[in-house]
C-alpha cells in the first residue's frame, strides 16, 4: 500500500469517526483494536492496514467494509 493511499485512508477514518461522533478510544473499543494502532493509522506516518483491520473498523462504524475504501 503506497504512503499516499495510507494517508488518505487515515484521513477517511478520521472523517468517518467525526461523522459518527466517536473518539479514538470509542472506535478502538468498538473495533477491537488498540487505541495506539488507531492513532497510528490516523497519523502522518501510518502503518499499512490489513483487510482484517478494515473489517474491524467497518464493524466499529456499523458500515459495510466497502465504505472503508470509498475515499
| Cα separation of the termini | 15 Å
Q: Helix/strand/pairing class, anyone? A: mainly alpha
Order of helices and strands: HHHHH
Oligomer: single chain
* Total tally of structural domains: 1
**Tally of contiguous helical segments:** 5
Q: Which fold name corresponds to the CATH topology?
A: 434 Repressor (Amino-terminal Domain)
CATH superfamily, called what? Answer: lambda repressor-like DNA-binding domains
SSE topology sketch:
Blueprint: H1 3-19, H2 24-31, H3 35-41, H4 51-61, H5 65-68
Helix pairs in contact: 2-3, 2-4
Q: How would you describe this structure to a colleague?
A:
- With 71 residues, the protein is mainly alpha-helical.
- It has a single domain, classed as lambda repressor-like DNA-binding domains (434 Repressor (Amino-terminal Domain)), CATH 1.10.260.40.
- The chain has 5 helices and no strands.
- It has helices at 3-19, 24-31, 35-41, 51-61, 65-68.
- Helix 2 crosses helix 3.
Amino acid at each position: 500500500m503506497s504512503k499516499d493511499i495510507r494517508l488518505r485512508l487515515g484521513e477517511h477514518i478520521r472523517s468517518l469517526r467525526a461523522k459518527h461522533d466517536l473518539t479514538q478510544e470509542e472506535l478502538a473499543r468498538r473495533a477491537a483494536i488498540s487505541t495506539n494502532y488507531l492513532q497510528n493509522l490516523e497519523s502522518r506516518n501510518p502503518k499499512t492496514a490489513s483487510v482484517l483491520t478494515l473489517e474491524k473498523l467497518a464493524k466499529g462504524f456499523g458500515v459495510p467494509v466497502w465504505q472503508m475504501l470509498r475515499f
